[in-house]
Amino acid sequence: MDSVKLKISIVDWLYIILIGACFGFLISLFLYFMNEDLQNISTIFFSILSAVSISFFAFILITISNDYILPRVNEKFWYLISFIFSFFSGFLGFSFSYYIFSLSEYNIINFIKPFWFYISITIGFLTFLVGMILHQFISMKYRNESITSEVLETKIKALEGELNPHFLFNALNSLSELIYIDQKKAEKAALDISTFLRNAITKDSLISLETEIKMVETYLDIENIRFDNNIKMTSSFDEDTGYIHVPKFSIQLLVENAIKHGYKSEALNIDIKADSNSIVVTNDGVLPEEVKFGTGLSNLQKRLHLLNIGKLEYKIENEKMSFIIKIKR
Known about the structure:
Layout: H1 10-34, H2 41-69, H3 78-102, H4 107-112, H5 116-161, H6 167-181, H7 183-200, E1 206-208, H8 209-227, E2 231-236, E3 245-247, H9 250-262, E4 268-274, E5 278-283, H10 295-306, E6 310-317, E7 320-327
Parallel strand pairs: 2-4
Antiparallel strand pairs: 1-3, 4-5, 5-7, 6-7
Helix pairs in contact: 1-2, 2-3, 3-5, 5-10, 6-7, 6-8, 7-8, 8-9
């Protein structure tokens, strides 16, 4: 049904009504200078009202067609019904404005009274043609938006594809050793890996902060097989902040980066704090001499930009390294 359905936004309708009013004003100027009897403000008002009325009827009829009629009829009749409704938008819109003005004795009404019906039919055919043009324009607009969205999604998926967790190989190696040492821990580790992979293969590029934190907790359970539970993490955010959407693997990547560059053969503490403005991931591990955005951090920066979420920053303060995701409002 998308091939025929006119998906016109409220902003599009405002533009259509505004253009219609301008077109009506131009017609009124033509009538104004064509006949001395029509040189009064009522001519201009009637023309503008007619154009706005036609736009309003188009809004009503297209909405009814899209929501209640097209879904219930055979696909081969969709174009016919849509263009019939376009015709009636012009016919009924002009007829309505004529009826309203006919209740008073304006010169413009006396001028068109003998052939108002034929004018209504003519305008109906004009709106039929406009409907065809509008359909092509709106279809092209949304087709382009769809292509742009698909290209963007492809870029994001390609970036996500770079994040296949290399830690998994280490985790599996640790798991194989753990099987001979502690079978219960090995069983739990296997379930943790399964849970993480199940979350990792979801199609959603954006997930809630709360879901991302749970993934990070699962990730740390896996990593702590190798690090003897020396990686400690705390997180704090309120209920509303938990619903903020972030790129999948964003916090996990920052935590992984903290472990990779900050772990120093003893306990590593990672603290995650979030509010509506930012998400801060801080660790008390080894401080870098120079902060470089390698593959992982550059990947995250690109995804934040493509998804229009915000940007990635960092700071070193009180002997602690922090990465900050600034949330775009």
